[in-house]
Amino acid sequence: MKRRDLLLAAAVVAAGTARAQISGAPIRILVGAPAGGSTDTLARSLAVSMGPLLGRVVVVENKPGAGGNIAADAVAKSPPDGNTLLMSFTSHAINATLYPSLPFDPVKDFTPLTCVATSPSILVAHPSVPAKDVRELIALAKAKPGQLNFAIGALGSSLHMAGEAFKMQSGVFIVNIPYRGTAPAVQDVLAGQVQLMFAAIGNVQAHIKAGKLKALGVTSAKRLPEFPEVPAIAEVLPGYESSAWFGLFGPGRMPPELAGRLSDAARKAIVQPEMRKRLDAEGATAVGNSPAQFSAFVDSEIARWAKVVKFSGAKPE
After folding, report:
1. What's the sign of the alpha-carbon dihedral 214, 219, 221, 226?
2. CB of 266 within 8 A of CB of 294?
3. Which of 143, 151, 245, 290 has the maximal Cβ count within 10 Å?
4. pLDDT digits (tens, 9 = 90+) for 280-303
């Protein structure tokens, strides 16, 4: 057999193997958060767009709890056949340090496929707080240590750690007031029961426009188009940046050709109009990087958040 024919035969076998590994059963995307939140809605939009690209039904299953660890553990223990995936979020990197003992390795037990999107947050204050920007807030907090407070929607979340990174870099002492969920935290800031909060933009944008909350700074490296008058916190604290991210993983040890096919489908799905519309609604920016790029990003996030978690002294609930 000629060398060209040998190569062609090898390619046919490889393609057949990849097709066999993605069977006709539905692909499940597990989400470690309740239905209705940003991670869930993005996962559902991604599933709808990925299905036709793979010629498969793609479904989403919610397994909330333990900061996303329940869903992550289920995927870590699944066969690497492409039938069970994980839509995770920033807590995947935070939990690597926050939880002293995890039932899985957050790096070795997963195959990064692509970062779907990132979403910066915004620092808001009740109108009674006598500071109009981050610089004035830091001065106020230093003049009155321990007299200001942050509403925390979920301990160990990216929004919690955004506040801890702010305190670590600015050297201020602001008290955390924990809540079981973002909604009650926002309501108490609106009522003036708590003074400050790092919030997802979608949760507070209407309140800012109505004048019920003051926007002091955004957590992106630069100002956001939707809030051009609100400074980036990095303008006062150089290097400060904190964005939530949402990423697609498979179990560890997934064959590279299978991981590549799933990653390609996800990346094509991200740029489709319906997916873009959902990202805009969530205040998120599409990413769609390669598995290698996403893997390097996850490693850097674990290292970055480890310093903040240790500074915060936070313990899992």
Report:
1. negative
2. no
3. 151
4. 888 889 999 999 999 999 999 999
